[in-house]
Design a protein that fits this description.
By secondary structure, this protein is mostly helical. It has 27 helices and 8 strands.
Length: 758
């Protein structure tokens, strides 16, 4: 018990210190966010826009899909440009051309090197000099820059409308025709894009970095990595090496000799409990998991195909009804829904077992209500997404019922409230089974940790309510990453590790002491890097150098525990040999093995590839980011949710025997398809973009001329092979769950016979 006290003390100290760091520097995000001026005027006093105009543009951007249509400050989709980098470069080139005509009587491209160098010097001085007067809350710009802005705005107004001259460009960017029909709202959108570019090119303090820490790379105004960027990148690499070395040293020299594994029970202990009504009701949850999973995979295939045909799906002009922005929104949202549903189902399956094999009163009713609430949120949010992107929904309702515009939190605020309410209901259902068990005598440390992780999942999704429709985007990004990083990559990780430990302990395969010790130690390691590591997403989102320093330092530590996951995979693999009855849960275990592998590769290797500030400076918003996202989100949480689904299916359908052919196809084709998708297409495209970004600038790496070149088109077509393999694996696991839920004929008879023989 003393060992538990030390581990609990370490965990509580880690949580206290790391949340203090996250909160303190979160306050700095509020204080140091780039100013949105009350007025933007020319030197002659002509009013160009206002704070309300800029924020109106932000809401217009949200209504067309926001981060699902290109990106802003590097966060969002990858097919269309990063609008910040694109606007900045176009405005700079427009200014140079105007200056060349005024000063030399020729276009900029016709000048000699000396003349161009002179104009670039003047350009850099004008753009990097901060014209914002905090006392008056006014931004003053030159007449020439105002004209450059107008020229850039004219291009954007035509692009987001239905100008025939830009139809080919819209197709290259996978934009639907007449993306934003209202000319007035297109003007507002231009104001917002201008402001994001102004913050990216203007020095926060004279002689120092811009508001976005010199991001994006733009040689015309010497936007390049700061000295602090390079220093903290080196620090993060050194800390990673030191952390890995320290972990190996501790593993080899400090850990006590492993206790002897308990003898495996002759019969699966989980089958000794009679299924409760609430557990029997979980079948519909499993069906929802695979239904949404299949839908997500299909939407992913369509979205990927739009990167080569833009507005068509093998010749069909699908974008009239299902544009890229919508399919990508549904692709991401359905992923979050089905993965979360898989986790919820696992928890609801465990609750009666924890409660001594019986349901608390009205537990089944709660399970049923929660399910239909989930269905209502899914249907409502998807319908809202469609109506918003089709520009059918009134602008004043978009944020609440349509599309928030923020990647991974795209659903309208009303549906977000519904989702949070559902998660809180799940927490209540879990606690109704857990609290009575906590009151019983005996070692309850593992159960206490499981309870804490359930509470964190239930409550921390509420971080998404700390921003609104017109909240400053730097502040919004801070809270958004509380959900995407802290809630998903942090607390879900702890819940998963603790739930698996609890299941294996209940099966009699590992001792309670070993399961508890491992879970507490893992939680401390995950949280130490994971909580402050949230800041590694915010290097260039209008934050200051200290945020970069904290993010770089702690995100390196996030990777450290992932290096031992190969051993965890081996341990999980060995479990299937512990007893003959373990054969019946072999395939769920195989999915848990895949989780450990992809945690190491997807979250660890591919995650650290984009973590150091100097790396992310050049590759934020490129397909290198998508490589990590696919490998980590599906490879870790997707396989984990499917493993939970198969495990729950196995126990709520006692006669089930997994179809070997289907499961082999599902497991190997899902893994093989993911490998093909990433390493034959997405990562090569990202690496080629990386070279372009480092040599020319981010605007070029995301530009139409670069992305439509033959090699990149071919690589995006190559992805089709990996997608097809993955889809076959997805359909196989879906069909296994469907026929498992409704067994008929010979399958059921064979299941009974096989169980009887064991």
């Amino acid at each position: 018990m003393a060992n538990y006290r030390r581990l609990w003390t370490i965990l509580l100290v880690v949580l206290g210190l790391t949340f203090s760091v996250l909160g303190y520097f979160g306050r700095e995000v509020y204080r140091q966010a780039p100013p949105i001026p009350a007025r933007v005027v020319t030197e002659s006093g002509t009013l160009l826009t206002t704070k309300d105009g800029i924020l109106d543009g932000q809401t217009a951007w949200q209504s067309v899909g926001g981060m699902q249509l290109g990106s802003v400050w590097g966060h969002g989709a990858y097919q269309a440009p990063d609008w910040t980098a694109d606007w900045l470069h176009r405005e700079l080139m427009a200014w140079l051309d105007l200056a060349a005509i005024d000063d030399f009587g020729s276009h900029y491209g016709e000048l000699d090197d000396e003349q161009q160098a002179l104009l670039q010097h003047r350009l850099k001085k004008e753009y990097r000099t901060n014209g914002y007067n905090a006392a008056d809350d006014v931004l003053v710009i030159s007449e020439r820059r105002a004209q450059a802005m107008a020229d850039t705005a004219d291009y954007y107004s035509r692009l987001f409308g239905n100008d025939a001259d830009y139809q080919a460009t819209r197709q290259s960017y996978a934009m639907k025709e007449n993306t934003l029909p209202s000319a007035e709202r297109r003007a507002d959108l231009n104001n917002f894009f201008f402001w994001t570019a102004w913050a990216a090119g203007t020095e926060r303090t004279a002689g120092e970095a811009t508001y976005t820490n010199n991001w994006p790379h733009e040689p015309l105004i010497d936007n390049q990595p700061t000295a602090e960027n390079i220093v903290w990148s080196i620090v993060s690499v050194v800390l990673l090496i030191a952390g890995v070395g320290g972990l190996i040293w501790a593993w080899a020299f400090l850990r006590k000799e492993d206790e002897k594994e308990p003898a495996a029970p002759a019969k699966d202990p989980l089958t000794s409990f009679k299924l409760t009504p609430s557990q029997k009701a979980l079948g519909k949850y499993l069906f929802l998991v695979v239904a949404l999973f299949t839908f997500q995979v299909m939407m992913g295939g369509v979205t990927a195909h739009y990167t080569v045909e833009g507005q068509h799906f093998y010749g069909i002009e699908l974008s009239k009804w299902l544009p890229y922005t919508l399919t990508r929104t549904w692709h991401l949202q359905s992923a979050l829904f089905w993965i979360a549903t898989g986790f919820l189902a696992a928890g609801l399956f465990l609750a009666p077992m924890i409660n001594g094999g019986k349901d608390p009163r009205f537990q089944k009713l709660g399970v049923d209500v929660l399910f239909w609430a989930l269905v209502a949120v899914v249907v409502g949010s998807f319908a809202g997404n469609y109506l918003a992107i089709a520009q059918i929904m009134p602008a004043n309702l978009n944020f609440w019922l349509g599309h928030q515009g923020y990647e991974y939190v795209d659903l309208g605020r009303l549906w977000q409230i519904g989702k949070f309410t559902g998660i809180v209901l799940w927490l209540v259902l879990m606690l109704r089974g857990i609290v009575p068990a906590l009151r019983q005598p005996g070692d309850k440390h593992l159960l206490a940790l499981l309870t804490a992780s359930c509470a964190a999942i239930g409550l921390f999704y509420g971080a998404g309510f700390f921003y609104g429709e017109r909240t400053h985007i730097s502040v919004m990004e801070y809270w958004r990453w509380w959900i995407v990083h802290l809630w998903v990559e942090g607390f879900f990780e702890v819940f998963a590790a603790t739930a698996l430990a609890f299941i294996f302990c209940s099966m009699g395969l590992v001792s309670k002491r070993m399961a508890t010790t491992a879970s507490l130690a893992s939680a401390s390691l995950f949280m130490l890097g994971g909580i402050p590591g949230t800041f590694h997403h915010l290097y260039f989102s209008g934050t200051t150098t200290p945020v970069m320093a904290v993010g770089a330092t702690f995100s390196a530590l996030e990777v450290v525990p992932l290096v031992v996951l190969g051993y965890e995979a081996w341990e999980n693999w060995r479990l299937k040999h512990r007893a003959p009855w373990m054969e019946s849960v072999r395939w769920p275990l195989m999915f848990f093995v895949a989780v450990a592998f992809w945690n190491m590769l997807g979250a660890g290797v591919l995650g650290f590839m984009i973590n150091p500030p100097v790396a992310l400076y050049y590759i934020q918003g490129l397909n290198t980011t998508a490589t990590h996202a696919h490998a980590a989100l599906f490879g870790v949480y997707g396989f984990l949710a499917l493993g939970f689904t198969l495990l729950v299916l196995r126990y709520i359908r006692p006669n089930l025997v997994f179809n070997e052919s289907l499961m082999k196809t599902a497991f190997w084709w899902l893994n093989g398809g993911l490998v093909l998708m990433l390493f034959t297409s997405v990562l090569p495209v990202g690496v080629i973009q990386f070279v372009a970004s480092a040599s020319e600038g981010l605007w070029y790496a995301r530009s139409e001329s670069f992305m439509q070149q033959g090699l990149l088109q071919t690589l995006r077509w190559v992805r089709t092979f990996g997608d097809v393999v993955f889809i076959i694996g997805a359909l196989a696991v879906t069909w296994q769950v469907v026929i498992g839920l409704w067994p008929r004929g010979r399958q059921a008879e064979e299941g009974v016979a096989e169980l009887a023989s064991k």
